[in-house]
Amino acid sequence: MKPAPFRYHRARDVHGTTQLLAELGEDAKVIAGGQSLVAMMNFRLARPRHLVDIGALRELDHLGVGPDGALRIGALTTHHTVETAPDEVLGTGFAVLRRAMGWIGHLPIRARGTVGGSIAHADATAEWCLLAVALGARLRVAGPGGQRLLPAEGFFLGPYTSVLEPDELLTEIVFPRPAPHAALTEFAERKGDFALVSAVVDLDIGAGRVRGGRVGLGGVAPVPVRVPAAEAVLAGGGSFAECAAVAAAAVDPPDDAGGSTAYRRQLVRALVERACTEAAEATERREAGRR
Amino acid sequence: MTRGEDGAREGEGRLIGRSVPRREDPRLLTGRGRFVDDIALPGTLHAQFVRSTVAHGEITAIDLSAVRAVPGVIAAFTAEDLAAGDIVAQLDRPPQEFVPTAMPVLARDRVRYVGEPVAIVVARDAYAAEDGVEAARVRYVVRPPVTSEAAALADDAPLVHAEAARNTLVDVELFATDGIDEVFATADRVVRVEARTGRQNALPLETRGAVAHWDDREEQLVLHTCTQVPHQVRTVASRCLHLAERAVRVVVPDMGGGFGLKCVVGREEIATAAAALRLRRPVKWIEDRKDALSASFLAREQHYDVRAAFDANGRILALDADVVCDMGAYSCYPFTAGIEPLMAAAEMPGVYTVPAYRVRGRAVATNKAPSAPYRGVSRPQYVMVMERLFERAARELDLDPVEIRRRNLITSFPYTGVNGITYDPGSYRESLDLCERTLRAEGWYEKRRTARAEGRHLGIGYACFSERTGYGSAAFAQRRMAVVPGFDLSEARMDPSGAVTVTTGTMSHGQSHETTLAQIVADELGLDIDKVRLHQGDTDRIAYGWGTFASRSAAIGGSAVRLAAGRLGDKLRALAAARWDVPVDRTALGRGEVFRRDDPDTAIGYVELAELAYLRADLLPKDIEPGLTATASFDVFNDGTFSNATHGTVVELAPDTGRVEILRYVCVEDCGVAINPQVVEGQCRGGIAQGIAGALFERVTYDAQGEPSATSFMDYKVPTAHEIPDVAIHHLQTPCAFTETGAKGAGEGGTIGAPAAVLNAVNDALRPTGVELDDTPITPETVHRALHRRHYQESTR
Amino acid sequence: MTTHPRPPDAADADALALQAPELQLMVLDVNGERHEVITEPRRTLVDVLRHELRLTGTHVGCEHGICGACTVLVDDRPVRACLMFAAQAEGARIRTVESLSAGSCGRPDELGDLQRAFRERHALQCGFCTPGFLMLAEGFLAERPDADREQIREVVAANLCRCTGYQPIVEAIEQCAAARRAARSDVRKEK
Question: Among A7, A8, A61, which would you mutate to test the C interface (most chain C Cβ atoms within 10 Å of its Cβ)?
Fold first, then answer.
């Protein structure tokens, strides 16, 4: 389990990185925290001829809320940084991200793994991919010709596949609006494993009642998905249990050694209901007090 | 047991029974341990193996020319190049009961599992070795694989070994008590359990590995390898490589666990040695995790079909068992493919008074990585089946599950069972009573009642079992092994400074022998433990030994060590007695001195005696030889000794996901005299964790092509601190009458009891549903399906 | 009957592998000591620590980031040294198990407080996973000195141990954390 040979390049800035990527073409791979990539390289399941290390691009290591109220997360921000971010950095309405970090691997993985790396890796069960899709994040991508800002929904094309071109670099993840009543929950046989099924619910609560919300699922399709039918139940004043049942009926999860389609559907039901309950109970004030 | 009594001075602190801090710890805690991969000899080359990509097939061509062209690759060898002999494990049984099979060091013309080594690549480092492996070209004609025990036994099954009809390597029918069919026909109640247990990996955190080199000065192959059985490795290396045993030295450094997986001889360490011989350079092989999971030794995949007859009072009348063990592609050395079925067949009645017994035990060959012993060997499985039988009978007869066990436990000792085994005294009943009392006092029965009333699924489960630990030559001979392990040898030597080195043929791979065996020696000689060193795991330092497996080290190794130390003590006493001109029996040992019984203030220190024995031999009486060494052997000539325990556990099932959460785990154990209670507790806790792993998490499956499912820790789900609960341990102590220390052994018990306890608790929690689960591992999906049967019927696509 | 050559992706021999390896100079700061290493960029941090610097206290258990036997501190945080190329560690402060004790001779009286707690609690048997757990705990307690037992258990779940059943490891870390807290409050009281 030793990686195949490669040439190592240390990136100095974003522009230089995309230039270099353009030169190297398909055989190059960007490495940030490397928590997924190095494992795949050790198995020789990934064998890039060139590795471009962006670890030194400090400008991509930032976290904070802008004047527009959007949370901007630099691609090199580690899960651990988000997990331990104080309220004044994370801003109001984004504590869901902090809570969600506990589901990502374990402390040493979170200490090294990055938000951008996770999204660019595009694992269908990854927490950040699901959070990005469910909470409507935008992804800032730099290429040799300039930048583009992409909605997270549509970014993922399939397992480990995204719209990112070989010469492009994901630089920033933008969560445009607060999600004060949101929660991520998931199920895996062991804590810290890739989820069999994961769910994010982001409730729109006003005047003490649920007016609607977003429902996102991981592990039920090749990419994280939103479930409009379940969202419609929330918008129509249905119960969390109804929402969960509709979500379960709306998806067609895979059938493999990890679990049957029927069981995964039951998990969708369980997790959506749990996420709804947690989301409804989540308030920024309580969260602020806990930290 | 007189030696201990006259060996100690009154009031002297004894170490046996105390949790002496481990001698091993300081080096291991500071990163200064030396494991096999830490050994760096100048000029070492690194090996990796080209492994079969097909489960079953003919090798038609092996082309290593591209391998040899890879930068950094020094050499690549096939079976033909190495010309090593095969590894053959034998039982002394007739052909209808046992079919021997040869395991070549590298596959020659046939491959029998995915991952089977086909060629060895030797390179300047491990990276280049792996580059080389990728460049190998092997062509196969694929044969249909045999991937289950049922498929192996089918009439038209492909044959894994041509010589083994119906892929049957072992087939024994034992005991068959007269009139057993009549008992079943007339019994008040007959219950049946059919159970399958998942294939597991013993999974030492340190994978297998070896560093081999030829020592010109000693004219000796030196093989550093992490094995539980150094002398067995020497024998196999000597035979396969056509060397005298003297010309092979096996040295075992610190070992990162073994659990049975390292008590058999692997082909890779022999191939590594063969490559080192060919190249006359040091060659290192460190198994990577992918290979350790898929191409190493596995265990535990068994199928039980068992019936038990009961009378109306819940007394067991008869047991009729059919056990089929899927042993994978080859017999392991020295235990053979019989290891699992013979253990299950011989010992299944366990702690219960079973008046009539019949069993058929079979080992079948399949196209999977071969099986080796794994902590507990079959006992975790048959105990689970026995405990399920009692639970089922209790349910059908409307008896309390603890009460039905009480009515059937062996309570008078020694007890000779229907299986011909004589059980030495234990605390079967007492351990069950204490375990139940503990859970009742903690309020779990009340909590279960409340939970059920609220519609929650909380269950309590027990397991009662014994663990034979003192397998001497007699017990292994009953298995009819062609190579009969059992005894142990020990040598104790005092140097001129009064410090003692003692050897053991056992081999610690985490069990703390450097501490516990030194405690025995220190007590025996009345010597400071810091003056005692243990030598283990070096075939040039240790005359002979069988290594560490079957929980034999404390019972047998500890006894040999004590005898040798005692004989060394006799020599010290003889020296002192000669000096005082008194009979030896007027002397005794203690506090680093020989003293006079009639005048305890008259004493001679060991240092003075040691100087006399070595440096002033001119002063020795004619009848006393110079030097201070003594050897002893120890064996168990009866059926051995049995540790016992009861485990009790409480689980709750998550209704929406099916997850099993263990709320409480209580272990009441009795391993005789606990030499070091903290070490015993460590063995219990670690064993229980592995038992829970087998009950709920770990499993290697194979697809129809014979491809293993588990090649990473993502697929092979070793439980973490999040899944393994705290364990409360209570000790009972029934000393063993025929080991030298009263110790029985504690290596495997935890693993044996946990699957049964967990499975029973899950079934107790499932009771309102009417569903019973008998197969392991129990996955959350299985539980969820049991809880919501209707749901799955509706949603079946 | 069909014949199976090796899968096509692996059969495509790597062109780079057929060239002499490209070497790279790396400067690493390990346990406060500066090391210069010339090696291939594909070497993982754990392999360089073990085989180039001969710091063999850090162990290799799985090489895919699950078991944690290779855990070291990189800029004070516990990370998997198998999931990091040594080249990525340039400019970072690396600490291994060899840095934990007061002395460097491995004598019992030189053990650090965390190591002593492991010994007292019998939190190690074979000792192979132990350096990883020590570094995990060292990094975690530095950041969260007030962690309670459940939080410690959650962190201990990051690594695999096959011998102990984990409970003694949790207890050892808890004991060490409590002792450190007590020592801190004593210092405060004295002031």
Answer: A8
